[in-house]
Amino acid sequence: MSPRLAWVPAATLALLLPASAARADVSYEVTLDASPQLFAALCAARAGGLTNSLGAPGDPVAARAEAYLARLDPSVTEPLRSYFKNKHTRPGPHLLSTYISLGLVVGAPPSFEWTVARDQLPPDVWEVQEFQPLLRVFYEQARLETLWRELRPAYEQALEARRPETMQLLFEIRGYLRMTGESYLARSYVIYLDLLHPPALVSARNYGEHYFLALHPNDGEFAAAVRHQYLHYTLDPLMVKHGLQLKSWQPLLAVAARAPRLPAAFRSDIVLLATECLIQAAELRLRRVDYEEALKEIDDRERTGYILTRYFYDALERYEQDDPSMRYYFPELLAGFRPEAERTRLQRIEFTTAETPTARPAQPVPAPSDAARAQLLKDGQRHLEQGDSAAARAAFEEVLKTSRNDPNALYGLAIVASQEENRPEAREFFLRTLEHARSPDILGWSHVYLGRIYDLEGNREQAIAHYRAALALNSRVERVEQAARRGLERPFGEDEEPEPR
């Protein structure tokens, strides 16, 4: 039987990755730059039909790139089209983030050598590593270096336009945290601006001690994205270091679990929840939001499930009246929290259940309510347990009609395909689950199942990589760890069945 399903947000991977060699310094260990390898990956995705357009609609740079790619001989683009068609059962823009990840872990063209050992590749990149030689050939045959040289001045202009704002944001955060003279050895934060990147997509990654942000320079959320990722960069290590102080906060997860709109990862990990709430509170302070307006924002976030934001907002006011750097003040920041008092206060909270309103499409498709979607997922799980894969598939596909990246539904369809012995489809859905999930148990089981699929196909090397990835999650889910260790000891055989949770 498969593990239970739970809603989870997009996953953040963790492994060691050196920063780009070609960079333009902004502040300390932070760089603002353009990446020819990311540019090449986006061009290849467009040429191969994975995406329908590049950059912002009407942007002259994107239009020039589109025109250049459209003039390529079909023999140059056909290998890419064939690859995407054969690799993915449902090629489409939802897969673009995987190839953006690949663009972050390859070196400069034309060789595009891996910047990490192959066994340290992010799991989503590991699954598409055969795209690397295709990218190399496409870059040379399409003469992308010519297009890059032609468009590079526009990239430089965009970088120069954003550099003062970026420097100001970073210095404000450093000043607020009183860390202006401090540095992080062997850590980096790289911001890549790309005019071919989808404007509505913010690609944030952290690979071990190295943080990345890739986005369109005209993204309306540019400042918020840069600030949010840099706060993660500066505060993540402190929260991890002092994580033991949060042990007494653990009962508050039962309160957070009642919030239907809170991503599941935050419902099961107090360190993740505390870090995100601290960052939200720091953002309000850095934006100098009026007190009454700040309270309204805190109320909204609290009703969404970010139940620690109010405490951190008040605690940061006390921090502002003191002198030490946040690095030294951090234990005191946590020490003032009273878990029982907060739990009593939060018992009266009414969590938000309605979806955030969105623009109505020309021909609207009614979106199910949270309760209806939860019921569909529950029905799908029940059908799985009863062995009715057709009914389970129908329930999960109904969820994807309006929430195409819902990781519970993706995971459910992966299990359905596994039960139907449709390995290509199962592999595709497990990979999509890894792309959008954060919950350690779902990530762990997805890696285990992928390892078993590769074992059954005789690809022991990839199987081992997934078993190791499952253990690297440190999920503390005993059955996941047992299954992953067993997979490392011996290949999963045709006569074996996945053990029930």
Characterization of this structure:
- It is built from 22 helices and 5 strands.
- It is mainly alpha-helical.
- It folds into 3 domains: 25-215, no CATH class; 242-346, no CATH class; 370-489, Tetratricopeptide repeat domain (Serine Threonine Protein Phosphatase 5, Tetratricopeptide repeat, Alpha Horseshoe).
- A 5-stranded mixed sheet has the order 1-2-3-5-4, with helices on both faces.
- Helix 16 (370-385) runs antiparallel to helix 17 (389-402), helix 16 packs parallel to helix 18 and helix 18 runs antiparallel to helix 19 (423-436).
Name its key features.
mainly alpha, Serine Threonine Protein Phosphatase 5, Tetratricopeptide repeat, 3 domains, five-stranded mixed β-sheet, disordered C terminus
Layout of strands and helices, then pairs:
Blueprint: E1 25-27, E2 30-33, H1 36-47, H2 60-70, H3 74-87, H4 96-104, H5 123-126, H6 131-141, H7 144-176, E3 188-193, E4 203-207, E5 210-215, H8 222-241, H9 252-256, H10 264-268, H11 270-286, H12 291-304, H13 309-320, H14 326-335, H15 339-346, H16 370-385, H17 389-402, H18 407-419, H19 423-436, H20 440-456, H21 460-472, H22 478-489
Parallel strand pairs: 2-3, 3-5
Antiparallel strand pairs: 1-2, 4-5
Q: Which structural class should the secondary elements be placed in?
A: mainly alpha
The low-confidence parts are: 1-27, 356-369, 497-501
* Largest beta-sheet characterization: 5 strands, mixed
Total of domains = 3
Alpha plus pi helix count: 22
Strands, count: 5
State the gist of this model.
Helices cover 57% and strands 5% of the residues. The protein has 501 residues and is mainly alpha-helical.
